[in-house]
Structures are given as structure tokens and as C-alpha cells.
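User: Show me a protein chain along with its predicted structure.
Assistant: Here is one chain, sequence first, then C-alpha cells.
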Amino acid sequence: MYHTWMRYFTPSPVHHRLGLVCLGVGLQYGALPPVGPRTLDHHVAMVICSGGGWYRLPDGRHLTITAPALVWLLPGVPHQYGPDPDTGWDEAFVDFTGPATATYTELGYIEPDRPVVPLGDSGPARAVVTRIARAARVGNPLLEVETGAAVHELLVALRRSRADLAPDGDPVLEALARDAYLPLSVAEHAARLGMTPAELRSAVRRGSGCSPKDYLLSIRLGRAKELLAATELPVAAVARRIGYDDPAYFSRLFTRRVGLPPIRFREQQARTVPGGWSQEMPDPADPPRLAPSAP
């Protein structure tokens, strides 16, 4: 016995320009019949929440699927798969396409070389798929935008839930973030962590999808923006705070990455507050209550 529910969509050309569009969503469970061999022209993320089964590679080799797991079906790649005929599985899937898939692949969120990815927890991804399913109601005027946005969220949830990544954060990335403002080279950061530069590059790319240099730079420039917007520190002092002794080099780097010079950024974004910004983020679910104005 098995149960299948699915909906399919046809987004317009203008929706495709959003970068990602959802083409379909489905929820299935039980001893479903095997699928394939077949080849698709778009991506599918299948979240196996319970049970298990198999996936056959194009060369004929079989991979075992044990929940919780993610199964990638990629455009142009022949595939076959199916649940264990005795136990079945609980499956949630989302079909999607768009030019942003290339960037998500480059960043490591979509892994062509790993069609079956163990997950530590399928709950967050399943929750996103459920929201897509609810958005699929007939007559929803926001269908294409709402489901497309949810595909971005699904890719993030799947990345965060991967079993080979620590759920509370990557220790290598945390160490780099802690030392990001020190005037150290990538090789010196690697040495402090007891790694070779190649090992550090591999670890950072696996955890963040970018190089150590770009990861450190994003942290430094984020802090520089905060200092420029929230303080009256001279640009040279801001540069020193984030690890650059040469303010001219910092200004050139900032301009190239941000698109405008530090002084111009300050003119646009200045939010100088006596005492500086708070380091404690308010709870969005429980905003502070303002006192009523005096009559």
C-alpha cells in the first residue's frame, strides 16, 4: 500500500527571472513503485524522512538510502530509484529550476557528485516542503513567488541539515571568524589551526562554499560597514580595527567589493547613536513595548 499526493506548476517567463522557480511538490509514503530509468531536464530534491531504499547510478552501481537522507535528481543525469518493497519510505520532493542552481552548485548546496546525502534531521526541510504544499492551493495569487522563495529556503535547510556538518556551527569557520580582524595571511591562519593552507581551503569551501580569503573578507567588510555607519571613526581607524594597516589599500578594497568608497558609504548609511549600537538583538517575537506618550 502507498499514498501519493503531488501538484505541478508552470511559472511564467517573468517568474523565471527571479532565479529559482518551483515546478512541483509532492508527498508520498509506503511501498511506492520504483522509478526509472529516466532523465529529467530540471532539479529535484527528494527528502526521505523514514524508511529506506536504493538509488542506481548511471554506471549500474547501487547506493543504499537510509532515512533521514536527501536524494538529488539532476538534469541530464539518468537515474533509477525506489523504496524497499517491504518497508517503503516517507518521501517529500520538490522540483525546481532556474539560473541560480548554477551558483548553489558552485557554493556546495547542490552536490552533483553525491546523489545520496545523509541528513542529521529531515524535520526542517520537511517543514519547508509542507509550506510549499500549502501554498499550492488553487487560486493562490502569490503561488510562483511564494514557492520560488521557499526553494531558496529549502536549499539552506538541506545544507544546514547535512549529517557531515556540525549543526551548531563549523569549528574551523568559527575560529576564522574569531581571528578575522588579526592582520594574518591565510597561511598564518592555517598554521594557527594546525592545518596546511590546502586543508584550510578545503575545510572552508566545504563549510561556506567560498575560499578562506573571501570568507575573511566578508567578515571584515561587514564589520567595517558597521563602524562606518554607527561611529565617527576616521577611515584609517576603521581600517586598523579590521586588520588593515594601510588605509589606502583598505579604501581600494572596500570600493572594489562594495561598489562605493568608505566615505560615500558613510554618507548614505550613517546611523550614529550615542553609546553605539546595541550588541543584543531584540526578540522579533517579543518586541519591547514603548511607554505611552505624555498627554
